[in-house]
Batch of 2 targets.
Target 1
Amino acid sequence: MNLPPNTCNGQAKLASAAVLSRDEPSGRAVLLLALAGSVWGTADMAYAQSVSDVTCHIEYATTRDGVRLATEVYLPVVPGRYPVVMQRTPYNRNGAPEDVSCVNATLQTYARNGYAALNQDVRGLYRSEGIFDAMRQEANDGYDAIEWAARQPWSSGKVGTFSGSYVGLTQWQPAIRTPPSLAAISPNITASDYHDHWTYVNGAFALWFAQSWIPLTLGKETMLRQLLASPMSRADANAQVAAFTERSNRDLTSNWVWQLPLKAFPEFRSIAPYYYEWLDHPNYDAYWQALDVEPRYQNVRVPTLNSGAWYDIFQVGTVRNFQGMKTNGGTAEARQGSKLIMTCCGHAGTSGQVSWGTASSPITTELRFFDRYLKGIRNGVETDPAVQLYVLNPPDTGTQGSGFWVYGDQYPLSGTRNTTYFFTSGGRANSSAGDGKLDLSPPWADSTKEGKRRLLEELRSSIPDQFVYHPNDPVPTVGGNLCCQPLLLAAGAHDQTRVEARNDVLVYTSEPLADDMAVIGPVKVVLWAASSARDTDFTAKLVDVHLDGFAHNVLDRVVRARFREGSKAPPSLIRPFTPYEYTIDLGNAGTVFKKGHRIRVEISSSNFPQFARNLNTGLDDSESVLSISALQVVLHDKHHTSRLELPVATTERIPNP
């Protein structure tokens, strides 16, 4: 989903800023390009220009089935054979009213640093031939593009790939097929399993992502392409694309996300048929297995620079890719060369209420990484820390936070210890005004109290909590790990006070912390719950309550009851009013809970429109309009220990902001 630059810049971060020059080509550059054309012979080329010390022209790479993929080729002005860096993207035009070519500042910077830098349109979009088939086309096309690039007269034969989101997918898909000329990849803010934590999350359809991403990006481009092929004038086609964009912005939150059944939603029928394929495959079946990176790390034989962000929609996949390559990469160099860099926000951008300062560059920049593995420069990248994390440090009051870097050779960091907080209440944990608590030492584990007193306190703190989930009145999404239109639904860290005022949200809060606590690593909620429904959802949210009462979201996730055994396991309905244990992996935290702050967990059954509502019927929600309310019961006693598990980095020194 590597969004267009004005929305979320997934381009490479080089050591120095790129400056875009629109100078006319020099006579020398034009002559060199003309001479190069005679050398390239039958290469299919079009459009040439230069910007002082860089030339650019367009060639067409032909895939195994004869489809030609348009490729901008940026080169140093001095002819030669250069290592190749390439991004394969669907976003070069992105439905814009005017076409542009050879103006990519990041690629120009790479060429200035001695690379042949390639910017390729994926199949079926902008200047490339064929029909776009989201995700599934990228393995073969990417493999063919890598091998094509390695054979060209301007290439040294070594190819690296870079960029993020969907352009991370276009790297991983060929990488797991082991193209022989691939030497390194640098995927950022991207996923590892395109069923779980891309299209679905623990069985719940990622509604906001799907319905906001497509009209913002791929849908507009496909619509424009179809209209221009109709044929239609560019002005009329632009007008229709603009009208579609206006309609999506107007109706997305007020109409589109509310429509039932999900499959009846009409807007994407012609421009994004893959949306309906996703709905046709709610389970982890052959459709998703063919794309899944996680079982295939052994096929990737090159170093990987994995960059992500704590509030990014794909942070789970970023970490899994690093860990998978570190453990199971196909060569010793691949395992030793796997690195993880985490910063703040990713796709969330700056739409959060809380800001986190400006992170300095990580130790391992992408340019140093490619210099090491594509040019063979002994610059020490292989000895850089494998894990480089920008940890978020929230304010005590106000919304101006900060951050600091920590480093290690493993994730979670060495010295991390698990700290468990148990849910307790007197049966009235509804809303932040209720009596829900997070206890390090619940009454049933308190050995300092004996006899009737201990039993009485145990009974008082173990009364189950209840709420009613109404699918027609879901808990609203307020911030979080979102993509893709923050002006319509803001992402990142936001005050949860409004959410926590609802009676269908259970709230469990700790005592003020006596000392700072650095929570760095995977966070888990173990929930014992029963429902009157045969299928339902449970949501969990980790919250930091500041000294002034501002309560910002740290992490949140959902689990669909039928997928309680895991997203890859066969789904099974639950028995009404029967307690089940739900393990909800909230994702990865890199934050400080400061002295005096309180740790909080919210439990509910919806987070809308981030996730499609569970209609509580046990039927296929994508084909149904029927919904029923569900009585939800959360248990927390010595036999049903609902709890929060936090990874605490005990050896990290927390600097003063």
Target 2
Amino acid sequence: MQAFMQSKLTHWVSVPLAIAALFGAGYWVKGNTLVNHAEATSQVAAKTISSPSAYITLPNFATIADSQGAAVVNISVTGTVKTSGIPGMDPNDPMYEFFRRFQPNQPQTETPMSGMGSGFIVKPEGVILTNAHVVDKADEVIVRLTDKREFKAKVIGVDKLTDVAVLKIDGKDLPTVKIGSTKNSHVGDWVVAIGSPFGFDNTVTAGIISAKSRALPDEGYVPFLQTDVAINPGNSGGPLFNLNGEVIGINSQIYSRSGGYQGLSFAIPIDVAMGIEQQLLDKGKVSRGRLGVGVQSINQDLATSFGLKTNSGALVSNVEKNGPADKAGLEPGDVILKFNNQVIDRSSDLPPMVANIVPGSTVKMEVWRKKQLKTLSVRVDEMQTAKAAPLIAPDNKQAKLGVSVRPLTSQELAQVQVKQGLLVEEVGKGPAANAGIQPGDVILAVNGDQVTSVTQLHEKLLPNSKNIALLVMRGDNKIYVPVKIS
């Protein structure tokens, strides 16, 4: 793929106000010469305008569209989602929420779903990158190329923390994109997006990089690229190119009050995405480093109180007992200034830095403690991704709920502000579904007894149990749900 070359075409820039001012002052332009009208007939030295000030060169995005468009694909997904509601009542009805609160045990139904997105081919044998949310809960994924060929894709792996997914189609010698790096990109650089907004295949939009390393709520492991490129539903998973025709990001999110483009778009840096792709292809999962600390940002007042000259760094608010940071000697109130020789500008810089460390590695941290610099060595652990444990009875004597649950992680416990609980990840056919238990519910207790593990929940479901009461946290509400065991 040839590098992008700027167009030789030039465009005249009209400046009406400047022309009006020149005529008002008795000046006019002849060729490249500025002449005073009052002295136009006399032999005077004319002032010359240099040619570059009258012309500008604009980037030609057609080269990128022509050379890279064939490697950008349209993705269509179909599947079913489990929903619960009040039969015969529109969820938009003002009274819907009222009845939902007093009738929580509504049966779940399977509703067909469909979606669309974009992606791009990174390997000629058919490896495709897209967003995890594009293929989430999909039963079937169809990839369509620009030459109208369609392939049924296999989802190789999904990483929800970075919103990256890897697909595979059966093909060979397929067109591929050229991979670049965000390290060589700067705020103000031109960028180009190709995707399928609202299903319109291979739509090209352009803009500039508005900011780098942007932190978004609940997205702590991705230093997003912020752009003003027009991104709409259907663009998700598509590539973001620089002017060299290299992919530097995956378009992922927009900030909008209307649901459509409003000038704020966010892309996953390609450096992050390619690291995830390699792990999913090699191991089928993603390993991340873990430090075991909670951090917060530093404002000017905090910087002054800690004796710092700037408000850079990550302020340690809590340290997990017996965690990697605790064993390294890190304390609440320390300010981490450098991690693995990388400067921390803001607290949001630290999570992706730690996540990128190979678990088991030992790295150095530079911290500010009691107005003095200290260097600590920490052995980074692996972040454990909690797995759902299917709640299936070992024999016919034990009751079955028909759900998959797992203990809440420490981060989730802090988020929902409870001390224990089991997160419902899947609900199949059975007593739980009939009672209205939903994915995302947190089971806190059975018949008034708290549960902290799947084993405890098994023990509470006695063989002769016919009815149980589950204390469930749903959103901000805690409700008892009666479950009839068959």
